[in-house]
Amino acid sequence: MSTEHLPEHPEFLWRNPDPKKSYDAVIVGGGGHGLATAYFLAKNHGMTNIAILEKGWLAGGNMARNTTIIRSNYLWDESAAIYEHSLKLWEILPEELEYDFLFSQRGVMNLAHTLGDVRESMRRVGANQLNGIDAEWLDPKQVKELCPILNISDNIRYPVMGATYQPRAGIAKHDHVAWAFARKCDELGVDIIQNCEVTGFIKDGDKVTGVQTSRGTINTEKVGLCAAGHSSVLAEMAGFRLPIQSHPLQALVSELHEPVHPTVVMSNHVHVYVSQAHKGELVMGAGVDSYNGYGQRGSFHVIEEQMAAAVELFPIFARAHVLRTWGGIVDTTMDASPIVGTTPVENMFVNCGWGTGGFKGTPAAGLTFAHTIATGTPHELNKPFSLERFETGALIDEHGAAAVAH
Ligand SMILES: Cc1cc2nc3c(=O)[nH]c(=O)nc-3n(C[C@H](O)[C@H](O)[C@H](O)COP(=O)(O)OP(=O)(O)OC[C@H]3O[C@@H](n4cnc5c(N)ncnc54)[C@H](O)[C@@H]3O)c2cc1C
Fold this sequence. Notes:
alpha/beta; eight-stranded mixed beta sheet; 9 helices; globular; binds flavin-adenine dinucleotide
């Protein structure tokens, strides 16, 4: 892929404007979802008098803290549709955004370690194939061929009994994705305003008319919330509740190694997943820390269990060293599916609940949420993910496909 469009330094990719007194729309949150939403609002709906307000620095939330796994092999039709649309967008975005963010379709494997896993995984492969998703079932020998360093012997605690595999899945470089969207947003006239915390909302009856921020009051006709782990805090400020719990989610990298790990391997059962970054670090994640919290850090015992699982599956990792660990705050819902749509407050819209898996959803979330903000109505793909589903009971339970952080 050509890298001729790569700028020299990200600091020159967007302006650093002061907030204006009013905008046609304000997006709260300068992570991937906020950036993608603003990009599609400008590109697809001609809304360019808009601002992204970020309380810290661009992509300083989950966007540049995630482990960058992209896939679309979710169980239910509603999820398969939105995640597969996202994957198709990932496939064209480097060219559209004119930025090589190292999207690498190296495949993602989900290991099965018990008969229950095998049955559930095969069911998911079948469902995926009916939805036109490139899912396959691999036996242990095929697993080993794709990832030779994996231990498939049957004398370990949880032997590998097979795996689902999606060849078009993979990884991308998260900070470059943010910069790519930010540069295009800026070119289209969007104001990206960092160090600008939203502290309250101005309402006329049930209708939002502005936001209070650490940099003054801004009037606006529409507000889109893209604040991940802080969504329920913002909803409370606006006067409604979201069915979300915020949890710390951790990840870590090893020091740099020669290429040893050609694909992405996830194990929900022993709770670890691993890929190797372009630079050579082994990137590893696990499940959420079980308590609620807003600290961008987690507990040591999660790392310890994750390491035990990793060494069992990949014995050669026993000689690797951990370079650094970090955490983000993920917004989990009770059916492990996102919430994208309208809210009880007129002209306020919400995109949240992507939990441990929203990086992969960034392009489709942005595209569909922009449609919802611009038109005031759901997009065909985000319609099933409305807030009302928690009242009607039409839940989309993706715990099976989203059980380990990814
Ligand atoms: C360790 C880890 C690993 C993960 N791995 C994967 C993975 O492999 N694949 C995958 O698909 N997903 C993964 N995820 C999940 C993914 O990162 C998130 O779902 C996704 O990044 C959410 O995007 P966002 O833009 O909504 O959130 P964020 O990037 O968190 O953006 C929200 C922004 O809102 C800002 N904000 C909050 N409150 C305010 C306020 N009051 N005013 C102004 N700004 C505010 C925050 O500072 C933040 O920058 C992982 C997450 C973590 C933490």
